[in-house]
Amino acid sequence: MSDEKKEIEAAPRPASLTAGEVEDAVFDPKAEDDFEVFKKTTDGVQFRLVGWPKASVIFLKVIFATGVLSIPTAMFGLGAVGGAMSVIGWGVLNTYFAIVQGNFRNRHAHCHSIADMALVVGGPVLKEICGALFIAAYVLCTGSGIVGLATGLNALSDHAACTVWWAFLSAIVIMVCASVRKFEKIGWLTWAGFISIYVAVFIVVIGVTTRDRPAAAPQTGDFDLGYHAIAYPSFIVGMTATCTIFVSSAGTSAFLPVISEMKNPREYNKAVYVCMALVQASYLTFSLVVYKWCGKWVTNPSLGSAGGTIKKVSYGVGLIGLAVSGCLYLHVAAKYVFVRILRDSPHLQRNSLIHWGTWLSCTTILGAVAFILAEAIPIFSYLIALTGSICFAPMAICLPGWLWLHDHGDWKRGGVVKMLAYWGHWLLILIGAFTCVGGTYGVIKQIQVAYSDGMIGGAFSCADNSGVHG
Question: What residues does the Amino acid transporter transmembrane domain cover (predicted)?
Fold first, then answer.
């Protein structure tokens, strides 16, 4: 066993607690501080300043971000009934696994990220695999934020410049915002960002209901709306749509670094429940309305679905939200690398040149990689779906199932209910593996078709790739 794993496993934890009871426990403040990655300090950088209401808003902005802009497109692949069931099902599952991760983290509080948790249950090799997936996931999410923001700037400027230049400007804005060092300081940005994107989507939802036909559909003569209550998609289309909906609420691994900066990490579950209840209700209603009125003519991202005027209004209102989405994703990825580098160094909580140089290098390098990936896969929904299948399926389904099994291994010898729960988590791990393999295959095939059909103009092309599926 590595020294780092021994340190994490040896961290003091109350013997009287069982899994699931952590959130109700009362700890001695000094003992709890020894438990944490960031210590409460008066002579260094104080990171632990986030209360649970602010945490819930950060979680809201992490989840209710670019995902909501791609779900109506996924509805076309699955149909209204299948799409609604997928939104509800994945929402419940992702909420449950967010709680599993939080409870596990509070029992092993030296864990700053999902990779640290992987170290506890699977050793250093699994830790490095999960760390790589974590970085890849949130760099790809940052790329989706860059694409969304660039599309908005393109729309507002009437395509006054090449799309690549708008993407480059978007990447710079996101990198600057992400360089704010603490989640507590980003808090006000998340309030503005969540309200911004929520109002923007609401404007589009109202706007599509005022039109006789979708803005992207032929404006004269008969046309096929493409609305189906029940659809019969191919495996490739179905898996791509499923991954798109899954990833819209799967970013719960981004919650974990926030726990380390909360004043009271035991209030994490309250923040999760508030966040996920609002997100899932909004996802379901907004996506069903947009799909009902736009069918296959929904744009991608969906903010352009109600016509030119509403498109400009919604993007104008939503620009802050799109920027903050990318900012949060990049901040989470950079914070992981930053803590990995400086975790055992006094510079972790010291205002030194090494501290700042390391932090700004993390945001700049990862932001540059996100920009390159965003231009290589510029169709918004495919970028989202690929992130879900490759990265989030292992991190948000397989690993949380393993975490639960680690803390509940004795349940396989319990009563019927406990045994069903135990083997049910093994089934969830298999579902995660299937989603990873099948989803990745489906999305790659869709991307190949998009390139061959000319939907994607090529990497670093000036073409606007935010088209419709019709």
Answer: 51-444
Give the domain CATH number at 372: 1.20.1740.10
Answer whether residue 37 is part of any domain: no
Q: Could you tell me the two tokens for 326?
A: 């990318």
Please give the single-letter amino acid code of residue 163: T
Written as one letter, the residue type at 193 is: G
**Higher pLDDT among residues 109 and 418, named by residue:** 418
Cβ(117)–Cβ(399) under 8 Å?
A: yes
Total-model pTM: 0.79
Token pair for 360: 């700004």
The structure tokens listed for 428 are: 């969830």
The C-alpha atoms of residue 348 and residue 343 are separated, in whole angstroms, by: 6
- In terms of Cβ atoms closer than 10 Å to its own Cβ (0-12, 13-18, 19+), residue 10 is exposed
Rounded to an integer, the average pLDDT of 40-44 is: 59
* Residue 266: domain span: 49-452
Q: Is residue 34 part of a domain?
A: no
pLDDT in tens, 252-268: 888 888 888 888 888 89
Q: Is residue 262 helix, strand or coil? A: strand
pLDDT digits (tens, 9 = 90+) for 105-159: 888 877 878 888 898 998 899 999 999 988 988 898 888 888 888 888 888 887 6
Specify the residue for token string 């890849």: 136
Q: Taking a C-beta distance cutoff of 8 angstroms, is the pair 231, 20 a contact?
A: no
Q: What Rg value do the Cα atoms of the chain yield, rounded?
A: 22
Alpha-carbon distance 54 to 87, whole Å? Answer: 25
Helix axes 163-178, 114-156, angle to 10 degrees: 140
Residue 41 inside a domain? The answer is no
For 426-467, the pLDDT digits (tens) are 999 999 999 899 888 888 888 788 777 766 555 555 655 554
| Count of domains observed in the chain | 1
How far is C-alpha 362 from the geometric centre of its chain's CA atoms? 19
Q: Is the Cβ–Cβ distance between 112 and 348 less than 8 Å?
A: no
Examine residue 301 and say whether the peptide bond preceding it is cis (omega within 30 degrees of 0): yes
- Whether 167 and 144 have beta carbons less than 8 Å apart is answered as no
- What gap in Å lies between CA 143 and CA 160, rounded to an integer? 22
